[in-house]
């Protein structure tokens, strides 16, 4: 599969853009485990124009993580176009437009998934951005605003006509947020529309290698995107890639090996930020990792782990966890 001239292989597995998750350190780790394309956290177009420091820092990319996409969001043509020009100066491989974020502070103001209620404006933004930059432009969106307005089949054609090079579809409406099950039937309908010729990337509930393979085979998508299932589990990309290539499960990492990967995540987060902010950032991964699911009598250690404020304190707790559960 190719996005413009970017070759991603036969069964590409992509890391989804996620706020407060897909920072540089995490992207590099997912790349190490086999992610074919990684995305930055989304960046506000208005904040880029105002050169807000925190937003400008999100434009930091590394040669080691290529190909990499920078994702922006906004609610008007001028700011999105100017932001795309700013993003292009740091030379990402792809500029992705976010029309899928469902959270109230974004969608409630008309940006992200809020654009699904104003398709003419969405298309104006896409056309303007495509014409303003030379970098390939892609879009990520949802099925529609709610169950009564699942517009993605027609919308996909309209977006393609604007000149985008690929389309990612999350199989939920904005009203669903992240609840319920992702509906891949409409993703498959878009992919199998004979008028569509750009790559279609499916997103939503890819949590196992078996599900990734099923989505490729049943719905015909060109790539799959993994989001929340990568929290505290960057090795999922290696598991998925191995299964897609061989049809057999990869022997699982040992408990100690997975603990060591989480330890590396902590160190990268602290090195990129500082000790206090790095640990605060990594708590989301530690809270979500499936590594500790089902461990007996783990509650107090979990609480202590998520309250740790220094690297030494956190690693002392990791040591207790490995001593208590490492042979399981």
Radius of gyration (Å): 20 Å
CATH classification class of the largest domain: Alpha Beta
Which spans have pLDDT < 50 for at least 5 consecutive residues? none
What's the total helix number?
A: 14
Largest sheet: 8 strands, parallel, barrel
What do we call the CATH topology of the largest domain? TIM Barrel
Output the CATH homologous superfamily of the largest domain: Aldolase class I
Q: Helix-strand pattern, N to C? A: EEEHEEHHEHEHHEHEHEHEHHHHH
Shape: globular
Helical fraction equals: 40-55%
With strands numbered from the N-terminus, the spatial order across the biggest sheet is: 3-4-6-7-8-9-10-11
Number of domains: 2
Describe this structure in words.
The protein has 328 residues and is of the alpha/beta class. The protein folds into 2 domains: 2-246, Alpha-Beta Barrel (TIM Barrel); 255-325. The protein has helices spanning 24-32, 45-49, 53-57, 77-88, 104-107, 119-132, 152-161, 185-191, 209-219, 236-246, 255-272, 275-288, 299-307, 311-325; strands at residues 2-3, 6-7, 13-15, 37-39, 43-44, 68-73, 94-99, 137-142, 167-170, 200-203, 223-226. An 8-stranded parallel beta barrel has the order 3-4-6-7-8-9-10-11, surrounded by 7 helices. Strand 3 (13-15), helix 1 (24-32) and strand 4 form a beta-alpha-beta unit. Helix 4 (77-88) packs parallel to helix 6 (119-132) and helix 7 (152-161) packs parallel to helix 8. The longest helix has 18 residues, at 255-272. The protein is globular, with a radius of gyration of 20 Å. The chain starts with a strand and ends with a helix. 44% of the residues are buried.
């Amino acid at each position: 599969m190719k996005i413009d001239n970017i070759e991603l292989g036969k069964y590409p597995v992509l890391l989804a853009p996620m706020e407060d998750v897909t920072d540089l350190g995490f992207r590099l780790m997912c790349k190490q485990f086999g992610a074919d394309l990684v995305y930055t956290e989304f960046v506000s177009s208005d904040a880029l124009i105002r050169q807000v420091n925190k937003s400008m820092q999100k434009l930091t990319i590394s040669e080691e993580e290529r190909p990499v996409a920078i994702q922006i969001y906004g609610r008007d043509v001028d700011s999105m176009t100017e932001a795309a020009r700013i993003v292009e100066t740091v030379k990402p491989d792809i500029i992705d437009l976010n029309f899928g974020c469902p959270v109230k502070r974004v969608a409630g103001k008309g940006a992200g998934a809020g654009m699904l209620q104003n398709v003419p404006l969405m298309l104006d933004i896409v056309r303007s951005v495509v014409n303003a930059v030379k970098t390939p432009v892609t879009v990520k969106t949802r099925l529609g605003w709610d169950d009564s307005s699942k517009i993605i089949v027609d919308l996909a054609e309209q977006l393609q006509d604007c000149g985008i090079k690929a389309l990612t579809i999350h199989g939920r409406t904005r009203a669903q947020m992240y609840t319920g099950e992702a509906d891949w039937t409409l993703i498959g309908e878009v992919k199998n529309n004979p008028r569509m010729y750009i790559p279609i990337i499916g997103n939503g509930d890819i949590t196992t290698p078996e599900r990734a393979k099923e989505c490729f085979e049943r719905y015909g998508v060109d790539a799959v995107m993994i989001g929340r299932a990568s929290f505290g589990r960057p090795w999922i990309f290696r598991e998925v890639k191995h299964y897609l290539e061989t049809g057999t499960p990869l022997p699982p990492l040992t408990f100690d090996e997975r603990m060591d990967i989480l330890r590396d995540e902590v160190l990268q987060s602290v090195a990129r930020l500082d000790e206090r902010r790095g640990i605060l950032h990594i708590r989301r991964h530690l809270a979500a990792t499936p590594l500790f699911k089902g461990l007996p009598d783990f509650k107090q250690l979990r609480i202590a782990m998520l309250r740790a404020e220094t690297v030494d304190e956190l690693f002392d707790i990791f040591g207790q966890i490995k001593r208590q559960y490492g042979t399981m």
